[in-house]
Amino acid sequence: MIYTLKQFAEMFNTTEHTIRYYTDINLLPCQRDKGNRRIFNDESVNWMQGIACLKGCGASIEDIKEYCELCRLPESKETLYARYQIILRQREQAYKRVEDAKATAAYMDEKVQHYEQILSGLIPDDSNPENWTEDTRPKKH
Amino acid sequence: MIYTLKQFAEMFNTTEHTIRYYTDINLLPCQRDKGNRRIFNDESVNWMQGIACLKGCGASIEDIKEYCELCRLPESKETLYARYQIILRQREQAYKRVEDAKATAAYMDEKVQHYEQILSGLIPDDSNPENWTEDTRPKKH
DNA sequence: CATTGACTTCGAGTAACTCGAATTTACTAT
DNA sequence: ATAGTAAATTCGAGTTACTCGAAGTCAATG
Q1: pLDDT score for B134
Q2: Cα torsion for A19, A23, A26, A31, to the nearest 10°?
Q3: Do A91 and B80 touch (CB under 8 A)?
Q4: Of these four, A28, A43, A81, B129, which has the most CB atoms within 10 Å of its CB?
């Protein structure tokens, strides 16, 4: 299966500009069709998945590039081990992000409660739709 | 209690440069001593806590500034409600971040497993301490 | 009185996009 | 064959949120 730039960008919820940028800096290699247009295939999808994930860990473009280059090198015990080490380190960061995000969310819950307490004391004008708000709390599944 | 720039930056695990930047753009107001040096107090700590938290939600400096300015305005039903709306929206983002980080961490767990499987097949040289690695999985408390 | 250390301003640099203008290409309709 | 449209191209400039370093100021200490 092959994808145009537009399709590819949509698949990853990003912009054509960003994908173009990634290919320009050789982070994400791509083929060109006879009209010089970028085309992507299922292998590109795999690479991009890895890139997106490392980005999610907070890795810099340079770090991600380093990892991708290790992956393109002939596979040896050493390169595999180096890749493993990078992945281990980035997983740490991912877990740290979970904890940070949880703490932030908890603090925001407090703030929401605080405002709700104050606002409830202000005899809200419930007849005014501008004062209506949905329950926006994250649903527990 | 008052704090110097250095102390204040350390409290928030950031750099003096960043705090200087925040004061320069009027995101975080500060007093000056007779020698024109920036000084911070407990109120600054509160502001900075709020700023750090909104940043943790992914809010832009401009958005945070807008919120801070609403907080400095005379308190009315309207300004309070506007602040509440911002906090609600940012809490959403915080919860989204938790989910994203969790998904990323899970994907990284898979990658780690994948590498461990491959590497375990390579008859590791356990006598070489360079091949030893600690258990770096996040501890469940 | 000289040195140290922490501060000051200011201007330039960086990462990772982000945008837009001008151009090229492929397709489709007349 | 031509005209129009949509989607691609390159390239250079702009943006955000820092990040760094140079050059200068100020107060306390040896």
Answers
A1: 57
A2: 140
A3: no
A4: A28
